[in-house]
Amino acid sequence: MTDEAWPWLVVGLGNPGREYAGNRHNVGFMVADLLAGRVGARFGRHKRAVAEVAEARLGFGGPKLVLVKPLTYMNLSGGPVAALAQFYKVPTTQVIAVHDELDIEFGQVRIKFGGGEGGHNGLRSMSKSLGTKDYVRVRFGVGRPPGRQDPADYVLSDFGAAERKEVDFLVDRAADVVESVIVKGVEPTQNLYHGS
């Protein structure tokens, strides 16, 4: 159950630095940036965590949002997330991780609450630091690498030319999904988006 007294911590997972900006692994940052733009918030360095943070409300008088981009690199994302959850007193059920997902084909965005990390180092770090897997995941499908390409190399490469034509639309869709989870809840959002 959500508690309107506490903000939502929306964590875009990615790697800091210009060289990673267009990587598949950085879709979480892309979604966080779009959400900040929608609510008119700007990212700034947080004094208590190695992360960029933007605070806003979702709509007039709506739920409070804390948008987060950890700056520790993917494998260590959990430390800043746990520090910010504690700082803002956010229950883990109101933490949303937005991340790339190899096990979902490109073009699909899926939502789940809890469960395994599917080998995703950012999620693994978050679960370890938060001490629970009970948080929301907005999973941005990037599909499996072609041929024998190493999955680690694949996620650290940019989207292909054909994919790039759709990325902006899909980032927009993922941002819609995040907003829907906050306003309507996980199950109604799954019903709304998993059929399409």
From TrEMBL:
Q: Where in the cell is it found?
A: Cytoplasm
- The site annotation (Stabilizes the basic form of H active site to accept a proton) covers D100
The reaction(s) annotated as catalysed by this protein in its Swiss-Prot or TrEMBL entry are: an N-acyl-L-alpha-aminoacyl-tRNA + H2O = an N-acyl-L-amino acid + a tRNA + H(+)
EC number in record: 3.1.1.29
| Pfam families for the chain | Pept_tRNA_hydro
**Keywords, sorted A to Z:** Cytoplasm, Hydrolase, RNA-binding, tRNA-binding
List, from the UniProt record, the residues annotated as the active site of this protein: H25 (proton acceptor)
Annotated tRNA binding lies at: Y20, Y73, N75, N121
Main EC class the enzyme belongs to:
hydrolase
In the UniProt record, does the keyword Lipid biosynthesis occur?
no
Residues in the signal sequence:
none
Among InterPro entries, the record links this protein to: Pept_tRNA_hydro, Pept_tRNA_hydro_CS, Pept_tRNA_hydro_sf
GO MF annotations in UniProt: peptidyl-tRNA hydrolase activity
Give the positions of the site Discriminates between blocked and unblocked aminoacyl-tRNA.
N15
* Assigned protein family: Belongs to the PTH family.
The task this protein performs is described as: Hydrolyzes ribosome-free peptidyl-tRNAs (with 1 or more amino acids incorporated), which drop off the ribosome during protein synthesis, or as a result of ribosome stalling.
Question: What is annotated about its quaternary structure and interactions?
Answer: Monomer.
What protein name does the entry list? Answer: Peptidyl-tRNA hydrolase
